[in-house]
Specification:
155 residues, alpha+beta, ph1033 like fold, 6-stranded mixed β-sheet, 4 helices, 6 strands, DNA-binding
Length: 155
DNA sequence: GCCAACGTTGGC
DNA sequence: GCCAACGTTGGC
């Protein structure tokens, strides 16, 4: 049974269109520096899990497509790269501290689903993304929520 | 181990 | 740009 997730990205730094241009439409999800998000990637994400791709700090903020996990949690080497924006002096190859997964694009929605629209959907009432103050950049999504989002994208 | 100060996220 | 809602840090 696959699990379901939502990944946030600021399109100014990495958009779903950028993902479409990657070799094999695949990228490593590096740079996450939050323990809860790391734990999901390191411990719970499995190959074949499905992903909703969300554009934060965008106009409008919206779920813009889907992807899947193609490689399970492994060390994030940007953590010990001094020139990387997400450099962490406490991380090293011996003690990686941060993890990432690889994702591959499945689909870019013809029409993005903005937050405003998602808030109107009864099936998504409890979705973590829509909770006030929700900041987690890697979130679990229920099967029901994932399917409700897909249904919206096709309507 | 508490908690105030600080830094960050992210919608608006 | 504002600011609410976080998460992290570090003094004690």
């Amino acid at each position: 049974m696959p699990k379901y997730w939502l990944l946030k990205s600021e399109p100014e730094s990495f958009s779903i269109q950028d993902l479409a241009r990657c070799p094999k439409k695949t990228t490593s999800w590096s740079g996450v520096r939050n323990y809860q998000a790391r734990n999901y990637m390191r411990d719970e994400m499995k190959t074949g899990d499905r992903v909703l791709f969300y554009h934060s700090s965008a106009d409008p903020t919206a779920i813009v497509g889907t992807a899947k996990i193609v490689k399970e949690g492994y060390p994030d080497p940007t953590a010990w790269d001094k020139n990387d924006d997400h450099y962490d002096p406490a991380a090293s190859p011996e003690n990686p501290r941060w993890s990432m997964v690889d994702i591959q694009l499945d689909e870019i929605f013809k029409t993005p689903l903005p937050l405003e629209q998602l808030r109107k959907v009864a099936a998504l009432k409890k979705m973590e993304l829509l909770r006030k103050g929700s900041r987690l950049s890697v979130q679990p999504v229920t099967k029901e929520e994932f399917e409700a989002v897909l249904k919206l994208a096709r309507s």
